[in-house]
Amino acid sequence: xxxxxxxxxxxxxxxxxxxxxxxxxxxxxxxxxxxxxxxxxxxxxxxxxxxxxxxxxxxxxxxxxxxxxxxxxxxxxxxxxxxxxxxxxxxxxxxxxxxx
Length: 100
Fold this sequence. Notes:
By secondary structure, the protein is mostly helical. It has helices at about 1-45, 60-90.
């Protein structure tokens, strides 16, 4: 049973890890947009409020991290495709002759 499900579990885990890495970096982008939005609101609407310290993320760093996250996603898709292909190569049992 372990041998039967090891490949699909590995493929799903690799895709999950890649998506987790992308979502982990998306948190920094959302935080950056949120702090900039709060500061803009504070500057234009509530001028007496102090500014929020801005968080920012470098686009170069973000692109490198996303490219690194795509590696396990692509590898997981390839593993899943390979397993599907191997399972389709196994011959299907011959259909039984209809009783006459």
